[in-house]
Amino acid sequence: MIRFRTDTYWSISWLMADIPIGYTGRACETDGGAVQQNVVARFQDGSLLKGVTNDFFPNKDEFHLLLEGSDERRAIRIADLKAVFFVHSFEGKPDYSENDEIERGGMGRKIQVDFADGETLLGYTSGYAPNRKAFFVFPVDPDSNNDRAYVVTAATKAVAFV
Fold first, then answer.
1. In this structure, are strands 120-125 and 62-67 parallel, antiparallel, or unpaired?
2. Structure confidence by residue, pLDDT tens digits, 31-82
3. Would residue 144 count as lying in a domain?
4. Is 19 inside a domain boundary?
5. Is 147 a domain residue?
6. Which distant-in-sequence residues (6+ apart) come within 8 Å of 11 by Cβ?
7. Among 33, 28, 31, which residue's Cα sits nearest to residue 56?
8. Residues 6 or more apart from 105 whose CB is under 8 A from it?
């Protein structure tokens, strides 16, 4: 039986509010029962770190990243980030050109995110609100190397539904 603490301010339904119904992420593995997620942490200063996390939660201010190819585990503060990209592989698909014309039903509303550094992200969301600190974006192309991105609102210049 699973028991949940009742003295915390969040609930499982709140954590899952941004995840489309029927969505099954492919960017995770299990290791001894813990969910291991491949992520690329992109910082507002332009730097990035690649690694695996098993303690990312959207209601937390930080998570820990086991750096790729290392035993080093580093605490990552959400406030320092531009976005967290949950990826299928760290190598990506360098020869693949993503199709941004695909319509994916059940993934929320189509959104364009313009980051302060000039990068643009196109995808779907069901959890964007300008007053939230962050929100999930799912790629337009289901064959993208990105499974989803957790976008930090403070790192955006403009966000619009398209």
1. unpaired
2. 566 689 999 999 999 999 999 999 999 999 999 999 999 999 999 999 999 9
3. yes
4. no
5. yes
6. 4
7. 28
8. none
